[in-house]
UniProtKB/TrEMBL annotation:
Residues 41-156 form the Semialdehyde dehydrogenase NAD-binding domain. GO terms for molecular function: aspartate-semialdehyde dehydrogenase activity; NAD binding; NADP binding; protein dimerization activity. Transmembrane segments: none annotated. Pathway: Amino-acid biosynthesis; L-methionine biosynthesis via de novo pathway; L-homoserine from L-aspartate: step 2/3; Amino-acid biosynthesis; L-threonine biosynthesis; L-threonine from L-aspartate: step 2/5. It comes from Tripterygium wilfordii. It catalyses: L-aspartate 4-semialdehyde + phosphate + NADP(+) = 4-phospho-L-aspartate + NADPH + H(+). It comes from the Eukaryota. Homodimer. It is an enzyme of class 1 (oxidoreductase). InterPro entries: Asp_semialdehyde_DH, Asp_semialdehyde_DH_beta, NAD(P)-bd_dom_sf, Semialdehyde_DH_NAD-bd, Semialdhyde_DH_dimer_dom. This is aspartate-semialdehyde dehydrogenase.
Amino acid sequence: MATFTQPHHHRSFSTFNPSRPKPKPAAATRIRMSLKEDAPSVAVVGVTGAVGQEFLSVLHDRDFPYRSIKMLASKRSAGKHLSFQNREYTIEELTADSFDDVDIALFSAGGSISKEFGPVAVEKGAVVVDNSSAFRMEEGVPLVIPEVNPEAMKGIKAGIGKGALIANPNCSTIICLMAATPLHRRAKVKRMVVSTYQAASGAGAAAMEELLQQTREVLEGKPPTCNIFKQQYAFNLFSHNAPVVSNGYNEEEMKLVKETRKIWNDMDVKVTATCIRVPVMRAHAESVNLQFENPLDEETAKDILRSAPGVVVIDDRAANHFPTPLEVSNKDDVAVGRIRRDLSQDGNHGLDIFVCGDQIRKGAALNAVQIAEMLL
């Protein structure tokens, strides 16, 4: 693989449409499509984590073009080998020198790592797509869902030697707004009430493993191991484990409030949330109540959602079949169902919907890679 010896030289990359479904050709074809001399150099930070691994899966599935790719992680993972697209890579320790000749850096190693190394990567000319909460609410940092607000990253390109930071929204915000935004565009949301049912994947690979372990332990009559969470997770649910702030909301709930306003560029929209951790492996579910400024009936809402990019409608009342976390696990699209008029509001000014989306995929890795595609 060629190295980019002139990182400040302008490079012209292919244009991608992040909303377009990507075909999945044979493996040999994928490799030939991905490795390109005129493509960007990529770094994956936190490659050994659940989202880092999903970054690689999404890059592979969407045939993301690259001329070189760095696998970066902590010192304890450095030196280990990782196979990607029939090539063997050695995981490198993340240092300040890791971003020489890197055009796009995909970060998912936690907020403290992002704060330390994100600005370093930008200084060296890389465009950083950060999956942590470190920069989401910073003035001037785009907070982007490609299907919702691609205009927020206008003018940012990879390979021109000018670094930039782009933030990936929180997973619950992405999944919610994928469904709510098309309706908001039609009838303008005045108030949104969200109740989330969040999977173990949101707390990382160790939490997913602990849920499996606890399930076995409880079924065998043993006390559950509680290292990640302070209480039993298997066969239980509890308020999201994010810290509770002074107003009584936890940080996860406040992310939905603040991030929605920033992404919609609407400081007046009223948002309230209750976030719950449920014993599901990797896909979040959300109950969303919407109050509109303009009338919107449920049939029109269904038509709008059926044509929305990245959204699939599962709404079979006769069969009582609606979205479930299992149905969307490992899937790109966010599923929407239970689309019905809010009976507590007069006329057609309110709807209830139920949304499910894969937290690791669209809620994290896929959204970040779609942003990277827009940089090309």
